[in-house]
């Protein structure tokens, strides 16, 4: 008995979602040794990137920026606080709001991370311009998907 031919639209290699997913996994893997050198995980690095852009942000704001649930960020932020990289404080205006402030140690870590983008560009084998074009295309796709859900 022969198996039916799979639908071309359902072949794994034809899936954009898998191309993005597997590329994301490999991107995280490429970052791993860099991040280990400064003692961060990839999700912690993303949170620190947001804080390096804007110190004093709230948990809700960082959650929105990272497209994640505030509850899932809390353990990560507590670990960063325990490591001395940030301080979490209750807002004076609204006690329900938690504000995040970098410590000196957290600010100093930024200098060590400044070499990471160039390392990733080199690992990709593409030019910075090519990667920026790809990033813009992915962001446009993300935007369309956000509008559809």
Sequence-ordered SSE layout with sheet pairings:
Elements: H1 16-36, H2 42-53, H3 59-65, H4 70-82, E1 86-90, E2 98-102, H5 104-113, H6 116-124, H7 128-148
Secondary-structure-based class equals mainly alpha
Radius of gyration: 19 Å
The CATH architecture term of the domain at 27-114 is Orthogonal Bundle
Strands of the widest sheet, in order across it, are 1-2
Order of helices and strands: HHHHEEHHH
Q: Give the distance, in angstroms, between the N- and C-terminal Cα atoms.
A: 42 Å
> Into which percentage range does the β-strand content fall?
5-15%
What would you note in describing this structure?
The chain is mostly helical. 62% of the residues lie in helices and 7% in strands. The chain has helices spanning 16-36, 42-53, 59-65, 70-82, 104-113, 116-124, 128-148; strands at residues 86-90, 98-102. The protein has a two-stranded antiparallel ribbon with strand order 1-2. A hairpin with a 7-residue loop joins strand 1 and strand 2. The N and C termini lie far apart (42 Å). The model has no long low-confidence stretch (mean pLDDT 95). Residues 13-147 form the HTH marR-type domain. Its main location: cytoplasm. Keywords: Cytoplasm, DNA-binding, Transcription, Transcription regulation.
């Amino acid at each position: 008995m022969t198996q039916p031919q799979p639908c071309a639209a359902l072949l794994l290699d034809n899936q954009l979602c898998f191309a993005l997913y597997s590329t994301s996994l490999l991107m995280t893997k490429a970052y791993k040794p860099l991040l280990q050198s400064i003692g961060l995980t990839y999700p912690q690095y993303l949170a620190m990137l947001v804080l390096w852009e804007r110190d004093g942000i709230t948990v809700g704001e960082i959650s929105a920026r990272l497209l994640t649930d505030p509850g899932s960020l809390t353990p990560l932020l507590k670990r960063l606080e325990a490591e001395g990289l940030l301080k979490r404080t209750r807002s004076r205006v609204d006690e329900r709001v938690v504000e995040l402030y970098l410590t000196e140690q957290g600010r100093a870590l930024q200098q060590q991370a400044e070499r990471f983008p160039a390392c990733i560009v080199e690992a990709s084998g593409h030019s910075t311009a090519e990667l920026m074009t790809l990033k813009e295309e992915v962001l446009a796709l993300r935007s369309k998907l956000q509008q559809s859900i």
